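Look over this today:
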Amino acid sequence: MGREFIDLFEEWAIDYDKSVVGEDPQYREVFSNYEQILDAVVGESSGTVAEFGVGTGNLTIKLLKAGHNVFAIEPSKAMREIAKKKIPSLSIIDGDFLDYPTFAEQIDTIVSTYAFHHLTDNEKKTAINKFAALLPSTGKIIFADTMFRTVKDKQKKIAEAIRKSHHDLADDLQREYYPTIDTMKNTFETSNFDVSFRQMNDFVWIIIASKK
């Protein structure tokens, strides 16, 4: 996101909503406390929101119910079609963290869930630098995503997934670009954000980044 994983997004679209409610045992821990994760992102958001990686629209619905004006961005056609059925009045933009059109108004908060790890570390830095230029002095970035305290912790999760025969999860953890907390902290601080982290389950953390 970038577009490296677009084929996977197309495949995941059909079963994504089943996975988030725990129907796929491989991803049950990843999506543990899913509703609370979405609510935490909404609770930290303010003003007009740009949501990257809308997916099937679950966070988008909560943001709209909370009264936010939302610019919704999603690179997967299949995901956009599912989200559009849930929110027919909303225009969903074909875009991603690195390539998106100019917004029609000032963006106060940038949010995303379960998506930022699809960027390499260098791509993450590029995206955060672009967002820093996009946001006003009071702007915030609120991400919920899988990350790990250390590389060793990540390797333990991979080994655990293999031991449980959760091969899809093990493949994901080895193929995608899940960062450590320190890496993300450095990325945001280099772009002049104050950043904090809140753990929501064994995989997912909330990143709360405010411009200095």
Q: What stands out?
A: The chain has a mean pLDDT of 96.
